[in-house]
ABC-type nitrate/sulfonate/bicarbonate transport system permease component
Amino acid sequence: MKAVRRIARFLFPLIISLILMLLIWYAFLKSFPQVGPRVGKTPGDVWTYLTTSDSARQAILSDLRITLQDAAIGFGVGMAAAMIVAALFVTLPAVEQSFMPVAMLLRSVPLVALSPIIVLVFGRGLTGVTVLAAIVVFFPALVMIMTGLRSASAQAMELVAAYGGSRWTRLRMVGVPAALPAVFAAARISVPGALIGALLGEWLGSGTGLGSSLVRAIPTFQYNRLWASIVLVTLVSVLLYAIVGVIENLVLARFGSEAGNN
């Protein structure tokens, strides 16, 4: 029951947010009539387009599958790198002092400015898109996971050290469990970020997936496809965020933590 209550508290705001998004969508189109029905599509228009045109729906879903694959790989690489680097930074302060300024400097460079260099180095295929998605995931996850690792109880750390535990043992036995809520919070935030990175990489690099088709839809006046693609990727982003949140609440309820419901 505890897990069910946690999940309900987590999902209820998401449902309210989706309803508000629909209302804002309608309000926007009503408030700006100059947009016109040719460009501005309502939720009903999008639904009709997706349910009546099989070829259009299949094309969008095919592009969406490519984007989800790109985002999944970028998410996995970015999260794994963030956890490894966070563990190194927390365990070895000298490493953090040497490399954290470099990481923050790279983070301050706009991704659009980095994209041509990344494409040049890693190519226009899956590798380049993965790197872009991983960069979007890596930096926020790194900061959050480091904060979680440092929230570990000092007394528990000292106890493990008193029994001869190394710094890596202290990290594994005390730091990692303490950082679990932060890891899940980083994952929740990073899922939409990975999709954004994948879309950007597809737009600037690979020329495939939804990122590329969204750009091609504008000059060819395919506004139905444009709106439908945006709606689908938004819904998928919210759905993935919700899935990670449900898993988070189940795990944290199992371990009796109240820190996971941010």
Summary: Confidence is low (pLDDT under 50) at residues 257-262.
